Amino acid sequence: MTTIPQLPTATTVGLTDLLPLSQDGTLYAASVDQITAGLQTEIVLPTGDVLGRASAGTGMPEALSLGAGLALAATTLQANGTDHLGFGLLGSFSTDAEVVVNAAGAPSRLPMSLLRGLFSAGAGIALDSNGTFSVTAGEIAGPAGPQGPAGAAGPQGVAGPVGPSGAGLLAPGSNNAASTIAGSDYIAIWQNGANAWITYQQLIGGQTIDQLPAAGPASDSDQLLVAQGGNALASQSFAAIWTYVGKKIPTMRAGVVELTSNTVLDATNHNQRVLVVSQPLVLSANFTNMGSGFSCRVINLSGGIVTMGVGIVSGTGSSVLPPGASANIVGLTYSGGSIVWWNGVAPTSPTITVAAISAPAPNTAFTVSGGLFDDTPAALDYSFDGSHWTAAVTPTIDATSYSFQVPGVAAGTYTIMVRDHANTAVVGTSPPFTITAAAITVGTLATSVTVGSAISVTGTVAPSGVAVQVGLSTSRTVAPTAYVSANVSGASWSASLPTGSTAGTYYVWAEQTNDISIQVVSGAIVVSASAASINYSINQPCLSG
């Protein structure tokens, strides 16, 4: 078989020349024109042209010439600025116009208004916001010369017309009576043998209070000026005023101040007040801030004792005010000195108090506790309505306090009563407390995010403070395979869930950690793939394949 190197060499090649071609195992003849069809022709450009295409539509590359402002330097296309020679000329410019400047080797636009920053006004020169220069004559003028002599007096002017004679003063009568008078109105007087005028304000000005003589000791017959039912002044005696005040005194009511923490008594906030203590605390006193004659009443409505602390002297030596008791505290100065005193006497009847109850979850056992005063019960009972009593199971009882567990109850608002099992007349009642039905919610969420991002989730939970866990699932009916713990603050919670790397439709599941039957599922969230990015650069060659 003859091989290709054994064949004679062709001197020229034409489009109709044939070449052997194997196609599906069969040998065929193919022309050079068929084989080279579709191949890009050789690109030949003259010096000074660039490759591109100016014709419309897709087609073969064309040679493009360089316009004004562009030139080739070796293999670099440069802008030389000669195209600016063809720009139109401005007849004038305003502060809204701009110029092109070289800033650190780079072209920049400069508003004309900023050109004023290159100029500053010197002595005697002013430059306003419109760029106008002006000269201050006073700054460049020389010193003033001496004053010249006074000129001659001018001629006397012509006398003006004389008005008619007035009618003079009229005797008082209905035709010239004034219904009102103002401070600037004039009143006629006779002074030094001639008519004169004085303003009404001058007439009634009288003496100021500092010019009056000092009064003697006050008495019931002393009088003050008052206005009754109008602006007319009348006199009123001190005795009549005291009668009025005496009738008002029975209607006065003492102010009520609630105390919830340790307090230092003072005259500003506590004098002549009823002090209601709603939490066990310590009262103390500083006589300097109270003064002799200070007085207040303290009522202990808390579940514990009020302790009379530093600065308060007890008449009996006792410093404890038990629940339900009250005491008067006074400040006084006498021959023995200045003290803040209370009698120290408190009732000794048996007392049971019930502390405020922190609301538990529904149907969850909770603790009841309180104080014991002058009572030593061996057993305790409790009730929610005062009619039906239940024996407390294994209560803890010491000399001054007790505690025991109560089975959980349904959602609602309650008070609980505790009594001495042996002495049923000794009963204490708690403040009201509310048990909230268990629930959880999810707030507003983004409906679409991208993979690799995080979904911020917020919501509410009841009862407050219950632990919450959240997770992502591709189904509204199939729970997530993994959860994260949410941050819980009171009745609110928040969490951040990563979307992962898989696009799709997801749902947020939130549930109470200790009771997953209390749950909520969000609406659909579309997680889409990240959008592909394309980077472009300038002066990069176009590659074709």
Order of strands across the biggest sheet? 15-17-19-23-24-21
Structural class: mainly beta
Largest sheet descriptor: 6 strands, mixed
Helix proportion = under 10%
Write down the overall geometry. Answer: flat
Output mean pLDDT: 85
Q: Number of helical segments? A: 5
Seen as an oligomer or otherwise, the chain set is single chain
Question: Measured on Cα atoms, how large is the radius of gyration?
Answer: 53 Å
Q: Span from first to last CA?
A: 38 Å
**In percent terms, what proportion of residues is strand?**
35-45%
Beta strands, count: 44
Pick out the low-confidence regions: 540-545
Explain how this protein is built.
By secondary structure, this protein is mainly beta. The strands form 14 sheets. Strands 15-17-19-23-24-21 form a six-stranded mixed beta sheet, with no helix packed on it. The chain starts with 17 loop residues before the first strand and ends in a 17-residue tail after the last strand. Mean pLDDT is 85; it is low at 540-545.
Could you write a compact summary of the structure shown?
It is built from 5 helices and 44 strands.
